[in-house]
Specification:
The chain has 264 residues and is α/β, with parallel strands linked by helices. 39% of the residues lie in helices and 21% in strands. The protein is globular.
């Protein structure tokens, strides 16, 4: 199943075109069938591609769920935002094609809970979320989707992994500056790279602040969330991970646990 090919791991592949070429080669050579949506030319022209429509009607979503009509059937999912709807629909279509019963697929899909670390609300009743977005397309889609709701002031906590593709950092900065009301830049697995250099590459102007220690960054983020009306706090980049890698050493650390502690 290929919903979308974006770009990642440029520290290894060097160019976007090479990354896409390798990913398509994997699909072409290893997969008996490739399920995809209309619009992805490189994929749908492959001999083993099976292509579906992703057009939905009457879409309604919030921070917690999505509701829409697809092929004259109504769906209600415990997953927010259209990019998650697309993920579900390509699986739905693939399972239909493989012979599974439509009603069973649809009912099971509507009972799938949020995956830990994927726009996960850390405490019931609080608009504080952790999300694993760690590529520019994922980060931008997340922030853009929340901003589209036009109900919340976005407070974002974000870093960038060390010894990885550096080119995405300026794109992170651009997206954070565009969509977030307040941005806290912090460590996110700096590994063996200079922490200050990473933070400086991410830092924008005006509504950006830098708090290197991720624990302190979350503490400040929760304070801002509590003191800002109609706000949502999104802690980005690590999701369900329970560690930090700093100067080659791995330490126990959980965004979820820290956020819950600060909210208590």
């Amino acid at each position: 199943i290929i919903n979308k090919i974006t770009v990642d791991h440029l520290d290894y592949h060097k160019t976007k075109s090479e990354y896409r070429r390798v990913k398509l080669e994997f699909a072409k050579d290893k997969a008996e069938k490739i399920y995809t949506f209309y619009g992805y030319r490189e994929i749908k022209k492959l001999d083993n591609a099976i292509v579906f429509s992703k057009k939905v009607k009457d879409y309604y979503g919030n921070l917690y769920s999505s509701d829409f009509i697809y092929n004259h059937k109504r769906f209600a999912l415990y997953w927010p935002f259209k990019y998650n709807v697309e993920n579900f629909l390509i699986c739905y279509n693939a399972l239909l094609t493989e012979g599974f019963k439509e009603e069973k697929i649809r009912l099971n899909m509507m009972n799938i809970p949020i995956i830990p670390g994927r726009m996960e609300m850390v405490k019931p009743g609080e608009n504080v979320f952790i999300d694993y977005a760690h590529t520019y397309p994922a980060l931008n889609s997340l922030l853009k989707s929340v901003a589209k709701l036009r109900k919340y002031r976005i407070i974002a906590i974000c870093g960038a992994g060390g010894n990885r593709d550096k080119s995405k950092r300026k794109m992170y900065r651009k997206s954070l500056a565009k969509y977030a009301s307040k941005v806290i830049i912090t460590d996110d697995n700096p590994r063996n790279e200079d922490e200050e250099e990473i933070l400086n590459e991410l830092k924008g102007k005006e509504h950006f602040i830098v708090i290197k220690d991720r624990k302190e960054a979350i503490e400040e983020g929760v304070k801002l969330y509590k003191s800002t009306s109609s706000s949502v706090l999104i802690i980005i980049g690590k999701g369900d991970e329970d560690y930090q890698i700093i100067k080659g050493k791995t330490f126990r650390f959980s965004d979820r646990e820290e956020a819950i502690r600060c909210l208590s």
